[in-house]
Write a structure and sequence with these properties.
By secondary structure, the protein is mainly α. About 85% of the residues lie in helices and about 0% in strands. It comes from Dactylosporangium vinaceum.
C-alpha cells in the first residue's frame, strides 16, 4: 500500500471532484434558467453542455493517459484539477450558455482525474492491496456525492453562482496542494508514443480490446457503463413516476444510498475481493447490480431499501473489475489503459442519457415507467455474462 499521505491526497482529489459536481447539481437548472430566461431552454442547454463534456472527454482521455505514462502522473493530475477549477469559475461568471459549454468542453478534454488516480494507485500498490485501495476511491466518490448537494443547496439559496465559486476554489486549492506536496509515482517513459495513430480514442479503445485477456473485460466494462448511466439519468424520474415521491424524499433516499455505498466500499471492498477472489467477486457483484436495477423498475416501495443494499454490493464489482484489469496491464501502460477505459465511459455518458430518457418517456406512455431500469438490468446481465467468459487470471 502507498504511503498514507499519498493515498489520502488521491482520495481527497476524488472526493473534491465529486463534491464540486455535487455542489452545482442543485443550482445548475436555476442558473441556466436565469441565463436563458426560460426553464425549457435552460434544460436543453444543460443537456448540450453535458454532452459536450462527454464528447471531449472521449477524445482527450486516451491521450491524457499516454501523457501520464510518458511524463508522469503528477503533472497530468494537477492539470486536470486546474481545468476543472477553470470550468466552475467560468460557470460562475459566464452570462451566456455557449460560454459555459465551451468551458465544460475544455474541462472534459482535460478531465483526467479518474484516469490518473486509477493509474497512480496501480503504480503504488501491489495487486493484493489494489482492491482495498480502489474501494477507498469508490467510498470517496460517494462521500463527495453525499456532501456536495447538501452544501450546494445551502449556498445556492443565497446566490445560485456561489456554489460554482466554491467548487472552483476547492479545485484550485487541491491542485496547489498536489503541485507542492504530491510525490510522483513513476518517472515516466519518454519512449511512450504520442502519435495520433495510437493516442486517438478509437485506436486506443481498439488496442485495449485486442490486448490479451482484456477484450472481454473491456466489453463488460462498456456494457456496465451503459447500465450505470441509464440508471443515473432516469432513476429520479422513475421513482417519482412510480411512487409520486417528492424531491425531498428523492434527495434523502439518494443521499442514504450514497452513504451506504461509501461505507460498503470503504470497509468491505478489500475483504470481499480477498475472500472471493477478483473474478468471483466481479461476477457476484455483477449479478447483484442487475437484480438491483430490475428491482428499482419493478418492485414496490417496501423493497427499495433491499435494492439499494444490492446496489451497494454491485459497486464492489467495479472495484473487482478495476483490480482485474490493472493486474493484466504492464506498469508502463497503466495510464494508456485507464485513459481508454475513461474514453469508453465517455461514450456511454455522451450517448446513453438521450436514449434512456426516450425509453423512459415511452414506458410512461405505456404504463410501465420502470421499463428503462428493467432494460438497464438486462444490460447488466449481459455485462456479467461477458465477464464470466473472460479468461481466468
Amino acid at each position: 500500500m502507498s504511503r498514507p499521505p499519498t493515498l489520502a491526497f488521491l482520495l481527497v482529489t476524488v472526493a473534491v471532484d465529486m463534491l464540486g459536481l455535487g455542489l452545482v447539481v442543485p443550482v445548475l437548472p436555476s442558473l441556466l434558467s436565469a441565463v436563458t430566461g426560460d426553464p425549457a431552454t435552460g434544460a436543453l442547454w444543460s443537456g448540450w453542455i453535458g454532452a459536450a463534456f462527454g464528447v471531449t472527454q472521449f477524445i482527450g482521455a486516451p491521450l491524457l493517459g499516454r501523457l501520464s505514462d510518458r511524463y508522469g502522473r503528477k503533472p497530468v493530475l494537477v492539470g486536470a484539477m486546474l481545468a476543472l477549477g477553470v470550468d466552475w469559475l467560468a460557470h460562475a461568471t459566464a452570462n451566456t450558455p455557449p460560454a459555459m459549454l465551451a468551458a465544460h468542453a475544455f474541462a472534459g478534454a482535460l478531465g483526467g482525474t479518474v484516469t490518473v488516480v486509477n493509474a497512480y494507485i496501480a503504480d503504488v500498490t501491489e495487486p493484493p492491496g489494489r482492491a482495498k485501495a480502489f474501494g477507498y476511491v469508490g467510498a470517496a466518490f460517494s462521500v463527495g456525492f453525499v456532501a456536495g448537494p447538501v452544501i450546494g443547496g445551502l449556498l445556492g439559496a443565497a446566490d445560485p453562482r456561489l456554489p460554482f465559486f466554491a467548487a472552483a476554489a476547492l479545485a484550485g486549492v487541491n491542485a496547489l496542494y498536489g503541485a507542492l506536496v504530491l510525490p510522483e509515482s513513476r518517472p515516466g517513459d519518454r519512449g511512450t508514443s504520442l502519435a495520433w495513430r495510437v493516442a486517438n480514442p478509437v485506436g486506443a479503445i481498439l488496442a485495449l480490446a485486442r490486448r490479451p485477456g482484456l477484450g472481454h473485460l473491456t466489453l463488460a466494462r462498456f456494457l456496465g457503463d451503459i447500465a450505470r448511466m441509464a440508471n443515473q439519468c432516469t432513476w429520479t424520474f422513475v421513482m417519482i413516476a412510480r411512487f409520486a415521491w417528492s424531491p425531498a424524499v428523492v434527495g434523502a433516499v439518494m443521499a442514504a444510498g450514497a452513504l451506504l455505498g461509501a461505507v460498503v466500499s470503504g470497509t468491505l471492498a478489500g475483504p470481499f475481493v480477498t475472500r472471493l477472489g477478483v473474478r468471483r467477486a466481479a461476477l457476484v457483484s455483477g449479478w447483484a447490480g442487475a437484480v438491483s436495477l430490475a428491482g428499482f423498475g419493478l418492485a414496490g416501495p417496501a423493497l427499495i431499501v433491499p435494492c439499494m443494499a444490492l446496489g451497494s454490493l454491485a459497486a464492489l464489482g467495479g472495484t473487482a473489475t478495476q483490480t482485474w484489469i490493472t493486474t493484466r496491464t504492464a506498469a508502463d501502460e497503466q495510464g494508456a489503459v485507464q485513459g481508454a477505459l475513461t474514453g469508453i465511459a465517455a461514450i456511454a455518458e455522451a450517448g446513453v442519457p438521450a436514449a434512456a430518457t426516450a425509453v423512459f418517456a415511452y414506458g410512461v406512455g405505456a404504463g410501465a415507467p420502470g421499463l428503462v431500469l428493467v432494460l438497464a438490468g438486462a444490460v447488466g446481465v449481459a455485462s456479467t455474462v461477458v465477464l464470466a467468459r473472460a479468461p481466468r487470471m
